[in-house]
């Protein structure tokens, strides 16, 4: 069961920025999600950071398949929050 959040994990900032913009358009969001940097646990090198785009979905209206496909198009993946 989802807690109303979809987390798209992307390999770099550029991909996260593009996915955030596309997700806003695809889902008709009032605001574009803001990409967040997520350093991998135990990693000191900034190059090992992933970027997250979090889409809040408290009513479960957004299609996880569409979000997964969007993330995968940018070498990322979807995690359920």
Distance between the termini: 10 Å
Strand content: 25-35%
Helix content: 25-40%
Average pLDDT rating: 88
- State the secondary-structure class: alpha+beta
- Most strands sheet: 4 strands, antiparallel
Strand order of the largest sheet: 2-3-1-4
Q: What overall geometry do the principal axes of the alpha carbons give?
A: globular
Low-confidence runs of at least 5 consecutive residues: none
Number of helices: 2
Descriptive account of the structure:
This protein is α+β, with helices and mostly antiparallel strands and 81 residues long. The protein is 31% helix and 27% strand. Strands 2-3-1-4 form a four-stranded antiparallel sheet, with helices on one face. 22% of the residues are buried.
Summary tags:
81 residues; single chain; four-stranded antiparallel beta sheet; 4 strands; alpha+beta
